Amino acid sequence: MKDYFSRELILQTFSIKKTDQVANFDLLRNKRAVEFYAGKRLDGKNNLKIVTGACRKILDLTRTIRVPIDPPVQIEENGFVKMYAGWTSWIVERPFGDYQSFQKWVKLDVQRLNRWFPDVFFLEKIKNDYELKQNLLGDTVLMWTEAEGWFYGPYNEAGMEYFSYLWYDDPVLFSEWIEQRFRQKKIITEVLVDAEKFPIAFIGEDIACKTGLIFSPWMLEKEFFPRLKCLIDVFNEKGVKVVFHSDGNLMEVIDQIIATGANGLHPIEPIAGMDLEKVRAICPEEMILLGNLDCSQLLPFGSRKEIEQEVKRIVDLAKSTGNIIFSSSSELHDEIPLENIICMFEIFETQRKR
Predict the structure, then answer these.
(1) Rg, C-alpha atoms of the chain
(2) What per-residue confidence (pLDDT) applies to 354?
(3) SS3 state at 242
(4) Residue 42 and residue 53: Cα distance in Å, rounded?
(5) CA torsion angle for 69, 74, 114, 110 (degrees, to 10)?
(6) Which run of H or of E encompasses 316?
(7) How many angstroms separate the CA atoms of 220 and 232, rounded?
(8) 57 falls in which pLDDT band (50, 70, 90)?
(9) How far is CA 17 from the centre of its chain?
(10) Which of 13, 292, 329, 346 supports an S-S bond with 267, CB 3.0-4.6 Å?
(11) Neighbours of 317 (CB within 10 A)
């Protein structure tokens, strides 16, 4: 059991105040770990309470609370057929069959989005969902995530091939499409942001892979970073801190990320070459770094000794340099053995109080 106040620790950390221990953050998406820490079996009826109950016992900060879906189901959304299984979803069928029909679909989507404005019921549903989850989480802080998806959403829907073709063939339509998706998220942010209830926001937009950027720096400079900065400015003006997330090696654009005014960076993926000590030295002192414990190789396959060494390394660096929140490099997923998750938290709890 935690013998401190998570919310107070998180707020102090993001206010760049000296704390007596290191905070943690993660996504708990491992059925066995959820049941172990909640002390209850996932039963399909009370899953939200069970998942949030597990999170509140071991996490100071989290985001995007979901419950596992079993058995898998297919759902049609805006012409896309999606498969939902476990903790995730993916597209299995798109409303276009070739590049020409995709271009036509994008034009229609732009027209639809241009007419879009949220009604009160739409906004109330979002607000109520977050408040319900935060209430269930208790002192564990839930990050606001409604400002993400304006960039990865389009390339996920299009598929990387068509997305790239559109950028090359029709940059005006491409930019208008991204702008309309961005506008949607910006409006929601301006209307619903509440620094008292949700003091930390999370904008996840993957722009890199393990070997480097997915997109050219020039394209990101034109289409991505100005919009990211605009969103961060909206949050910061209202007193909300923002964590920017992208998997992969971000070293080529780390200066551009800093220039957006992001208050935090996640997940500092070690297997992608993101060295936590180096990133800490490059980033401003007031930028919080979250992550760096590898969840793709170390946590699924590593020994207790290997996990212990890495946890100690990250916590020691957090104590010596400050402004680091301990976290996995993405999430605690179902492929990680329960004993390794228990090991990680046991070692972390021991080390962060020393």
Answers:
(1) 20
(2) 77
(3) strand
(4) 11
(5) 130
(6) helix 304-321
(7) 16
(8) very high
(9) 24
(10) 329
(11) 18
Residue 15 tokens read as: 């206010």
Query: How do beta strands 200-204 and 141-143 pair?
Result: unpaired
Q: Residue 78: inside a domain, yes or no?
A: yes
Q: Is the pTM of this model over 0.90?
A: yes
Element (H, E) at 131: helix 120-137
307 within domain boundaries: no
| pLDDT, position 78 | 86
Say how many domains are in the chain.
1
Asked if residue 311 belongs to a domain, the reply is no
Q: Which residues pair with 75 in a beta bridge?
A: 82
Separation of alpha carbons 193 and 241, rounded Å: 11
d(CA 274, CA 292): 8
Domain annotation covers residue 89:
yes
Give tens-digit pLDDT for 280-289.
999 999 999 9
Q: How far apart are CA 257 and CA 250, in angstroms?
A: 9
Residue numbers of the domain that contains 81: 67-95
Find tokens 């996920």 and name the residue. Answer: 156
Please write the tens of the pLDDT for every residue from 154-189.
999 999 999 999 999 999 999 999 999 999 999 999
Average confidence (pLDDT) over 321-337: 96
Answer positive or negative: Cα dihedral of 27, 64, 91, 181. Answer: negative
What is residue 5's predicted lDDT score, i.e. its pLDDT?
A: 86
Share of the chain above pLDDT 70, in %: 99
